[in-house]
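Incident log, support desk, overnight shift.

02:14 A customer reports that sequence design results differ from what the structure should imply. Their input is reproduced verbatim below. On-call engineer (initials T.W.) acknowledged and began investigating.
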């Protein structure tokens, strides 16, 4: 069982006076940062803030720490070190990837996108229509927001080069079967690009095991600094045209990051792995491989989240005046819960703030998903999202506050 007190001791936000009494339920927007990440970031700025990879001590240490971050994250996700790269954000990362596909594809080729995705994994691909690429939309169920793999089958044929979909939508919350969808796409000769932003905070996945060609997530929602992290598998990464400086084209991890990296933040991302390893050590987890350790920590987080989530879902489902988006079974979803109520989402979030609950309201850039479920994007949803560091008391406080404002 997850030791929540230990978990919370790893996050300075929980001992920060100015945040005392505030239950945090906007984690899908951005998580608190672990002490390990903050310590590394501070150390980098104090001791290593020079151009890395030069032959003097501070620079060598800085460069080595940046390499360490990629190597250890890659090992946890079951991929090679140079298959992991950093960019400023997931939105900018998909933008660059879309430019690479723009060059690689021919008019008449097709891409499948969903209307469940955040705009980051949708808009950049749809714009390829300007170059004669056919865009096919894999549509969600208008009632439930569910993405049915059977419907994907109807869209796949030998013209499809890429299928873009989320591991989990930031408003529907349902966990999509990545390995299954990837197998369907691969069988039709297409690659996949998976947006893992809403999933990764609930346990880093075994990307190698799932088979995804591209897997993206945002470190700032996963206890880390403000970076986007990309896994781009070697076969696709070497085949797509280089988007970086021409002389860097032989380095896989530099091919899709045209800008210079944020050295300190890349280095500090090693703290995300320190944190996961601290959780493993505290709970007596000794995986035979980093992937096994990562999987055990993932399960520990998920068990805790599911236990806390079910009463919240039961409460929301029992309210006649509220539409709960996505599954009512905690095992099927992330604890990212969007509610459509009589009052607009933002107004409700403001009311929750006066009850000591930090939540968000609006469209969360998931406009297409909300429209696909006939939710007025101006009215928006109230979204309450939590992660493994959330306590049972906080969820009870949230339910009481919801009861007061809904
Ligand atoms: C599911 C999902 N995908 C992508 C993004 C965009 O991530 P970034 O802010 O790193 O561009 C977000 C941000 O909210 C998101 O929730």
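02:41 Re-run completed on a clean worker. Output:
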């Amino acid at each position: 069982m997850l030791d929540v007190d230990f978990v919370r001791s790893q996050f300075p936000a929980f001992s920060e006076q100015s945040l005392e009494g505030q239950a945090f339920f906007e984690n899908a927007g951005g998580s608190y940062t672990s002490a390990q990440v903050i310590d590394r970031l501070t150390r980098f700025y104090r001791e290593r803030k020079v151009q890395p990879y030069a032959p003097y001590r501070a620079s060598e240490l800085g460069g080595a720490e940046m390499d360490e971050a990629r190597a250890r994250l890659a090992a946890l996700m079951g991929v090679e070190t140079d298959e992991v790269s950093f960019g400023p954000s997931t939105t900018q990362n998909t933008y660059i990837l879309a430019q690479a596909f723009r060059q690689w594809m021919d008019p008449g080729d097709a891409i499948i996108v969903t209307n469940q995705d955040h705009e980051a994994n949708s808009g950049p691909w749809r714009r390829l229509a300007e170059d004669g690429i056919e865009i096919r939309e894999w549509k969600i169920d208008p009632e439930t927001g569910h993405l049915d793999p059977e419907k994907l089958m109807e869209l796949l044929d030998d013209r499809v080069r890429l299928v873009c979909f989320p591991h989990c939508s930031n408003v529907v919350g349902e966990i999509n079967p990545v390995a299954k969808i990837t197998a369907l796409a691969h069988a039709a000769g297409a690659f996949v690009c998976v947006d893992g932003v809403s999933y990764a905070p609930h346990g880093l996945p075994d990307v190698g095991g799932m088979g995804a060609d591209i897997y993206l997530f945002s470190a700032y929602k996963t206890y880390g600094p403000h970076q986007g992290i990309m896994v781009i598998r070697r076969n696709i990464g070497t085949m797509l045209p280089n988007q970086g400086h021409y002389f860097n084209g032989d380095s896989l991890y530099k091919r899709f990051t045209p800008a210079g990296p944020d050295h300190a933040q890349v280095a500090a991302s090693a703290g995300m792995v320190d944190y996961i390893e601290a959780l493993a050590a505290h709970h007596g987890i000794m995986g035979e491989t980093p992937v096994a350790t990562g999987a055990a920590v993932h399960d520990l987080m998920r068990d805790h989240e599911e236990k806390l989530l079910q009463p919240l879902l039961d409460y929301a489902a029992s309210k006649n005046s509220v539409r709960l988006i996505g599954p009512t079974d905690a095992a099927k979803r992330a604890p990212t819960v969007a509610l459509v109520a009589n009052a607009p989402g933002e107004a409700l979030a403001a009311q929750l703030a006066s009850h000591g609950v930090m939540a968000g309201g609006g469209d969360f850039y998931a406009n297409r998903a909300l429209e696909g479920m006939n939710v007025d994007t101006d009215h928006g949803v109230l979204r309450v999202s939590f992660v493994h560091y959330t306590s049972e008391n906080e969820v009870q406080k949230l339910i009481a506050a919801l009861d007061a404002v809904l």
